[in-house]
User: Fold this.
Amino acid sequence: MAQPRLQVLAAAVALTLALVAGGGGAFEFQEATVDAIQLGFRNGSLTSAALVQFYLDRIARLNPLLRAVIEVNPDTLAQAARADAERSASGGRCAAGLHGVPVLLKDNIATRDRLNTTAGSLALLGSVVRRDAGVAARLRRAGAVILGKANPTEWSNFRQVDPGWSARGGQTQNPYVLSVTPCGSSAGPGVAAEANMAAVTLGSETAGSIICPSVLNSVVGIKPTVGLTSRSGVIPITPRQDTIGPMCRTVSDAVHVLDAIVGYDELDAEATGAASKYIPHGGYRQFLRIDGLRGKRIGVLRGFFEQYAPEPRRVYEKHLSTMRHHGAILIKDLDLAGNWTDLGDQMGLLMNAEFKLSLNAYLKDLLYSPVRSLAQVIAFNNAHPKEERLKDFGQANLIAAEKTTGIGAAERAALRRLNELSTGGLEKTVKEHRLDAVVVANNDISAVLAIGGYPGIAVPAGYSEEGVPFGIVFGGLRGYEPRLIEMAYAFEQATKVRRPPAFRH
Ligand SMILES: *[C@@H]1O[C@H](CO)[C@@H](O)[C@H](O)[C@H]1NC(C)=O
Ligand SMILES: *[C@@H]1O[C@H](CO)[C@@H](O)[C@H](O)[C@H]1NC(C)=O
Ligand SMILES: *[C@@H]1O[C@H](CO)[C@@H](O)[C@H](O)[C@H]1NC(C)=O
Assistant:
């Protein structure tokens, strides 16, 4: 009897020593990927509860400085325990995808639980949603653990507030260089992902709100084709451009999240119905191909790199050579077709009307809300000038939107013009040169992608001498996600630029 017990004891001691030494046993929480997490679940070195606890500790420690998280889910540990129990009961079979993985959601994505959904505004505190947002419901069905809500820019930038600021969350800080903006409006998810405060995060974009904070925080952001992911239950700006997408530390993680959230939703029927034809059989992970750059025709737009300082430009040039080295065919000095001078005016005019209509519809649908219309939001801000920092930021856009009276002749003309810019612009350029993607620095093409409902993927590209991250963006036409993922993944694997932040003031 004594012999086997001793052996068990010896094995336990050996395992403990291995864990202490970190030599193939202990789970490495920093920079943990979804694949590593699932492996950890399967080999017994990790539980969802331990992972959630790690992120809760990170949030408690870092959030007073970074303000990336606006609310922690009081039920997150219970959800993790449930995921752990489900996994044991299934004999480990459900250790796949996002099952048991803690996800942080931008605070404009509704959850029907104890978390608030406010788009960072005090006006919506206490409002009660009818149901989970379409993407949140899909995450739950995949067994993901809802960690909490991330700090957005209030009203998703519609108030033109400071890029990372919200009345509820305060100023989100860039963990690489605290004096530099983390950009918005998905500042919270970007910073949380990059500072290891969550396994993966979800942001939303209307015109640059995923791409911009991704490049400035050295994370991968996917801005999906509009309609690929449901917008139901997401506080809107315009259904014509709004899209929900992952912000993660790796392309592979972002693709795990994308796989979990795409699909038809009867509450966003028209857009998700139209875009579901783009979803590939077998999902997006098949496009994580190390040779994903081979044979790809990539357009390098004129004027999009030249404006940068010599150092990032040198790095971008090196990246373009790397792409060529990995088999991509670069078509350089392309001019984006079309006359874009009136883009901002037309976009603003149309968005004002669409914002009022869609926000009012969102507010009316709530089970309870302190405000029921854009007019009441404006009145709330006027009544709380100090908390809402009205003197600094004003609310000119909200007021301009309130003055609109639906989609009239001017809005229809603007819509025609924007469609013309899309078909005569990016679509024309891509088709003429048979491109798989255009590649640009940072956020520079976001408006072009926005008006066409086109997808883009941001990948870390480097750091300035001061340590501020910059990124590279692959953009394409609607439904181009498979090839964009191929290129982004192959580029990421060839360059491996991202490194976790060392906090600098
Ligand atoms: C379990 O998998 C993780 C990767 O997720 C690895 O770091 C760890 O060493 C593995 N542990 C054992 C005991 O195999
Ligand atoms: C939601 O807001 C209410 C009202 O301010 C607050 O009491 C509650 O703690 C918030 N919920 C969470 C999960 O933080
Ligand atoms: C572009 O359009 C603007 C008006 O929006 C016009 O003033 C300008 O002349 C046009 N530029 C070219 C090159 O056609």
In short: The chain is about 40% helix and 15% strand. The first strand starts at residue 69 and ends at 72.
